[in-house]
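Duplicate of #3305? Posting structure anyway:
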């Protein structure tokens, strides 16, 4: 698939409107919001460990850091050094480090930043935010729109609120902070909530990864599960993984990385969010126009003129156009169409009342055939399936080559019945046997 920046942004916008856009926020988000180039308040994970080391009079670079160690390993080494230096138990040193990290992440954006980022995130309207950050910057930004959740909570929130799930704990509860190797090991227990919930959440969403380098093994495992363990799960919603990378000279063209994640580059996270906001607003306006058109069409279906009913019966092209629109937007139009269809059926039986009006039965058969042939039974609303089956059974007693039967209706049925999809025939047969629709069973004989 050829990627374009426009396509990636439009897909993210579609997910925002659909309601399943999720954001995975790393330390880069906190740094983008808090740091202005002159006063760097928010820190990366490595910088945070280094600053915590200074608070314990430990030289991070010479006593802790060494090439090739992960951050959890470095945190574990730091805790051992603290325990040794202060002659305390390792567990006590871990608690002291977590409390110090809670103190060091007391970051709060000013009014200008709050207003800027509130508008950006509010337009994105994510259904969830998962973060590895301990700070409460996102909750400060989304005051009145978010609910803060720790690792002991479930990833749910009241309607209208965005859950901000702190995967690695929060500064307000230092004991919840995930930092050492031992903390990480507990995350991989088979029944651990995060171990199960995270890949499912990613699978069910379009996930926008912001300010995060995908270095966390817990997150990498979740991404692997969402793509491979659940690869056979069918999606009826937009779902993709898009990572935003900050570069001084960003590549304007998005691309796939070696994990098949879409990468889109930007010089600033705020610039990217503003760019995405513009696409979302444009798409929202387009969707609003479409929704208005569908609403107007639904009103038309619910309150048709007699001429509209007759046109549906007599004009095959017009009839098929309506059936195809219904197939594309069944959830929006089915209520109106069922009312419209009931009036169509009334008119067809009214036409059949005079003696010798056998043509009306043929018209009725043609209407039902068009619906069955042009609609996918698996996508057809159940109420419409039942209505078609019931009325086919009703008209079936008038379809045949005998006296008092419509020969035209019979020939029409024989000529077109093989065009009905097999799944539709199977379901009609199920209905016929379930409700003992004798005439429908007879029509389906041989199919």
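Output from current build:
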């Amino acid at each position: 698939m050829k990627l374009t920046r426009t396509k990636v942004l439009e897909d993210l916008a579609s997910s925002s409107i659909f309601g399943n856009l999720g954001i995975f926020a790393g330390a880069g988000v906190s740094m983008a919001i808090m740091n202005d180039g002159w006063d760097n308040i928010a820190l990366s994970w490595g910088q945070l460990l280094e600053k915590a080391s200074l608070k314990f009079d430990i030289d991070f670079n010479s006593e802790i850091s060494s090439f090739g160690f992960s951050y959890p390993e470095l945190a574990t080494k730091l805790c051992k050094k603290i325990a040794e230096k202060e002659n305390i138990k390792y567990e006590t040193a871990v608690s002291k480090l977590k409390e110090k990290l809670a103190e060091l992440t007391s970051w709060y954006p000013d009014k200008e930043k709050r207003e800027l980022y509130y508008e950006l995130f509010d337009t994105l309207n994510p259904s969830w935010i998962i973060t590895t950050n301990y700070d409460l910057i996102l909750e400060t930004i989304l005051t009145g729109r978010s609910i803060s959740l720790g690792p002991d909570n479930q990833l749910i929130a009241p309607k209208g609120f965005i859950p901000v799930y702190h995967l690695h704990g929060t500064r307000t509860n230092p004991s919840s902070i995930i930092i050492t190797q031992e903390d990480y090991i507990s995350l991989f227990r088979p029944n651990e909530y995060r171990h199960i919930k995270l890949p499912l959440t990613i699978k069910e969403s379009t996930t926008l990864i912001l300010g995060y380098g995908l270095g966390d093994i817990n997150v990498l495992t979740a991404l692997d599960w969402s793509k491979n363990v659940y690869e056979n799960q069918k999606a009826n919603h937009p779902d993709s993984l898009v990572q935003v990378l900050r570069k001084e000279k960003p590549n304007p063209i998005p691309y796939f990385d070696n994990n098949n994640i879409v990468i889109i580059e930007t010089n600033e996270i705020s610039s990217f969010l503003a760019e995405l906001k513009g696409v979302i607003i444009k798409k929202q306006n387009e969707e609003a126009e479409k929704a208005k058109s569908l609403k107007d069409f639904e009103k038309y279906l619910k309150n048709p003129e007699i001429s509209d009913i007759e046109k549906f019966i007599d004009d095959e092209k017009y009839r098929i156009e309506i059936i195809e629109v219904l197939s594309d937007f069944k959830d929006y139009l089915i209520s109106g169409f069922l009312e419209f269809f009931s009036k169509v059926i009334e008119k067809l039986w009214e036409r059949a009342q005079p003696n010798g009006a056998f043509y009306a039965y043929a018209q009725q058969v043609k209407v039902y055939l068009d619906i069955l042939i042009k609609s996918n039974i698996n996508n057809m609303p159940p109420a419409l399936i039942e209505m078609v089956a019931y009325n086919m059974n009703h008209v079936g007693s008038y379809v045949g080559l005998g006296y008092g039967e419509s020969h035209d209706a019979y020939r029409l049925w024989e000529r077109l019945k093989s065009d009905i999809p097999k799944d539709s025939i199977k379901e009609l047969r199920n209905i016929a046997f379930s409700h003992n629709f004798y005439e429908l069973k007879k029509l389906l004989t041989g199919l």
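Confirmed duplicate; merging threads. Confidence is low (pLDDT under 50) at residues 233-237. Strands lie at 21-25, 128-131, 146-149, 162-166, 206-210, 241-246, 255-256, 262-266.
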